[in-house]
Amino acid sequence: MSLNAKGRKGKRKGSQRMDENDLSGVIIGCGMRVHTALGPGLLESAYEECLDYELRKKGLNVGKQVPLPLIYEEVKLDCVYQLDLIVENKVIIEVKSVESIKPIHTVQLLTYLKLANCKLGLILNFNVLHLKEGIKRIANQL
After folding, report:
1. pLDDT tens sequence across 12-51
2. Sheet of 120-125: strands edge to edge?
């Protein structure tokens, strides 16, 4: 499944050759820049917007609030779910600003990965003192 990004696309800088692991390194670096600048305690939407900006500056194709349809047997339910961010149609990012990452967040992201046919997802919880404490990597057959 190819998901279309809302909004403008970033400049291309050879990102097509990057695999999921390469992309995750860039994403985490951008997340750390955002967290260093803003710190914890803001709304998820603020972090999402700034992370989207940082990723586009890197020349990556980023979709924000991308509708993810649910197909059950022959029934297609459009816009049931929305991905916070998807990078290069390969890595899904769930942006959080919560006390802690709960098992339900992990299950939710794994479901999104399966529905979107993506192999890697990242939960980035910005409501921590150091972002490295708020990163959870979820693989789907990677």
Report:
1. 445 568 899 999 999 999 999 999 999 999 999 999 999 9
2. 62-72, 75-87, 91-96, 120-125, 135-139
Query: How many Cα atoms sit within 13 Å of 51 on the Cβ side?
Result: 33
What φ, ψ does residue 36 adopt, rounded to 5°?
-60, -40
Residue 13, domain member (yes or no): no
Rounded to two decimals, the pTM is 0.86
Residues 127 and 101: their CA atoms lie apart, in Å, by: 10
Domain total in the chain: 1
User: Domain range for residue 52?
Assistant: 18-139
The tokens of 16 are what? Answer: 């097509």
**DSSP β-ladder status, 91-96 and 120-125:** parallel
Pairing of strands 91-96, 75-87: antiparallel
Please report whether residue 64 resides in a domain: yes
Which neighbouring-strand residues pair with 2?
none
Q: State the distance between the two ends of the chain, measured CA to CA, in whole angstroms.
A: 17
- The 3-state DSSP class for residue 12 equals coil
Which pLDDT score, from 0 to 100, does residue 78 have? 78
Residue (of 125, 102, 100, 120) closest to 110 by Cα position = 120
